[in-house]
Amino acid sequence: MCGPYWPVLLIVAGFLHSGCAPLVLTAGAGAGYVAAKEEPRSKVETFFEDLGRSIRQTTRKLTSGRSSAQRQTSEQYRGRLALRIQRSTLAPTEVYRGEQVTLTLQYVIMGAPKGGVKIREKSTLSKDGKELTVLKDESSQKENGTWENTLSFAVPKSAKAGKYSVSLQISTQGQTRSARHSFTLR
Q: Chain-centre distance of CA 79, in angstroms?
């Protein structure tokens, strides 16, 4: 009755009794999920995976709040925070699958305290008025000056032809500024 499997049976029983078995089973289930993810299960999944891999973004400060014109403007806003979109663009406006779309958003912060303010930048992609995905949603501390955010992505090969729009939004301390641009996928 105490064959060669008896020690294995005791070890398994010990795991079951100590509560470690669910961990072992979960690890096995996770490995199956990772293996299944290697093959996309649908065109929708392929669209989002391709889009997600292609998103590139940078934010840089173009000017500080130190020029005389900006200093004068900043003094007007002392104690009052001002957030303004200076320029926003999307190019190209007609694209084919696999091509890059680039969005640029320049904005100005004035009247911020010495340590800056927390700015939230959010960009969403929509088709036919329905939001498809969030391209970017990040918050970071920014000081007075002009800032430029550049976001680019490749249009997935699985995307359907039609009109798409990208909404850009910046917000801080109850102030929100937004812009919307469209492109056509041929």
A: 32
Structure tokens at 105: 């958003």
Terminal Cα-to-Cα distance of the chain (whole angstroms): 73
Position 151: which residue type?
A: L
What pTM was computed for the model?
0.66
pLDDT tens string 68-126: 445 545 455 556 899 999 999 999 999 999 999 999 999 999 999 989 999 999 999 99
Nearest one of 183, 151, 145, 146 to 165, comparing CA atoms: 183
- CA quadruple 27, 28, 30, 35: dihedral sign: positive
Among 8, 12, 30, smallest CA distance to 20 is for 12
Q: Strand pairing partners for 124?
A: 134, 167
Strand 117-127, strand 162-172: pairing: antiparallel
Asked whether the CA dihedral 154, 156, 157, 159 is positive or negative, the reply is negative
Calculate the CA 110 to chain-centre distance: 26
Q: Which residue has the tokens 């056509």?
A: 184
* Residue 33 Cα distances to 38, 40, 45, 48, 50, angstroms: 9, 12, 15, 18, 19
**Tokens 């305290």 map to which residue?**
113
